[in-house]
Amino acid sequence: MITFSSIRGRIGMRPIAGIKAQRLRHQPRSVRDRLLDYLRMNVGRPVTGEELRYVAKEATEWARRVRELRSEEGWPIVTRSSGRPELPVGIYVLEQERQSPPHDRMISDGVRRDVLRRDGYQCQRCQWDHDLWNRSDPRHLELHHIQHHESGGANTADNLVTLCTVCHDEWHARRDSSTFEVWLTGSE
């Protein structure tokens, strides 16, 4: 059995994070809810799989619940294989406390990974990437539907493009008639 003191010492958990993890672990709530709460307490900070397993009371399905939070619930949780190739294996980061809209949540992990790789893990409008990130910059990368999903646009690589949250929000706030391709290239 994993104890609070053994995990904190083994993985170097910050004392405050360890106390929060211990409190969450003992709450009579679903594994997914406890995991989300812990990630939200650590927005922007790397969290290990061992910390998440501890919060999940060693439930074997904790990794599946994290994937569900990302793919079905729309939380921007990244790992080495889902948007942040510089992260070590077994590290999870909730990039921002903001869920993506429901229509964006059904993009499969394979398509998401293919689009991010194709686009070089950078915003196709401003070229922002994780190498430019700092603590005061709340950005992360999202996928944008060129033909809006609600208008019949498919969740396929040829209908998706990588944008940072700043550019993505800017595009959706626009009220003019320029096309996405013109705006994307900055030739408006």
Outline the structure in words.
By secondary structure, the protein is an alpha+beta fold. The protein folds into two domains: 99 residues, no CATH class; 89 residues. It has eight helices and five strands, in the order H-H-H-E-H-H-E-E-H-E-E-H-H. It has a three-stranded antiparallel beta sheet with strand order 1-3-2. A two-stranded antiparallel ribbon has the order 4-5. Helix 2 runs antiparallel to helix 3, helix 2 packs parallel to helix 4 and helix 3 packs across helix 5. The relative contact order is 0.10.
What's the topology here?
Blueprint (H helix, E strand, L loop, with lengths): L3 H8 L3 H11 L5 H11 L5 E2 H7 L6 H10 L5 E2 L12 E4 L14 H10 L22 E5 L14 E5 H9 L6 H6 L3
Antiparallel strand pairs: 1-3, 2-3, 4-5
Helix pairs in contact: 2-3, 2-4, 3-5
